[in-house]
User: Fold this.
Amino acid sequence: MPQIKPYRIAIPKEKVDRLKQKLALADFPTELEGAEWEYGTPLADVKRLTEYWHKNFDWSKAEAKLNELPHFSTDISVDNFETLNIHFVHQKSEVKAAVPLLFAHGWPGSFHEVVKILPELVQGSEDFPAFHVVAPSLPSFGFSEGTKKKGFTTRQHAEVCHKLMLALGYDQYVTQGGDIGYGVTRGLAYLYPESCKATHTNFPRPNPPTLKQHPALYFEYLQSTLSEMEKSGTARTKWFLDDGFGYNAEQSTKPQTIGYSMTDSPVGLLSWILEKLHDWTDSYPWTDDEILTWISIYAFSTAGPAASQRIYYESKHDKDKFGDKLAEYIPDVKLGVAKFPKEILQHPKLWNQTLGPLVFESEYTKGGHFAAWERPDAIVHDLRTMFGKEGGAYGVVKGKTGFE
Assistant:
């Protein structure tokens, strides 16, 4: 059994000083008049944040705040790859029968996205369940080691997360995830249905129902009309694929090329991620400290910021087409789905039924891609409802209902 060790974030002062030196020496491009966000991250925003990062942002304060969380690490051996040291947050509830929950982040997120929902989820009462929460830095993200071998896909990310849960004594568990975290949680459901008993996602990626695979659903869809929210979602998806997909094309074809900028230039890293924090959220009022803590985790990540982008390449070039399998119907794992209006990829609600036994759905009028950060209240509400006494996933983990 892998040894679980306490972990403390401790970025060397020399590394922080070097980053600040680079910020001080930064050169900036010109900008067209009136360009604003249409052409990418605006010059004024990048200059302002660069100056704040250089002169005023206190990483030591942010680091101390992060270290208030219960951090750990352990070595996970990955089949046909190497052994990776995996960092994770593990907050146990005082409720002994709490439901073990794995929270899986995406790109450009990190384990940090769990901090707003964590204190709520570990609490329990007669009215709602409690959870033991595990939030890893996925391999090549945050403070986990990164692979040095080609072909490390979502399948391997799921394997790491499953083995982590087993190492913590959770033979059965449930999951929550969006973005890449959606693929990881679907991978867990597909590969380990005997352990992953239910999953909730804010980023479902179903295929449309077909006559061959889902005949009843197919005809129901043909006869249905889109709601106003679905129409808005279709427009949002078109915008994303037409005008917001460039990062994906680069990271899924030549991640090493953009990786030099992400690694060597903190300004390049800032502008690359800031665009997503702006475009993918629902007018979320980011503070400068929030943004720079978020991006500093990438700048100071164990494997370096370029490593996290390679999952896009591996997914696109996966000969096993594991990602395609994740859109199949998974019969033995209960599913919950949340819909937010500013999510970047959306689809008709009916399609969700092609993914598995759908026991919970919610729709919100506010929120975007980083749901646990933008709308922690919504994610907490969904999980408490889905796994509550009247919920469709109540009691899915043997002996762990979430209640005393």
The radius of gyration is 21 Å.
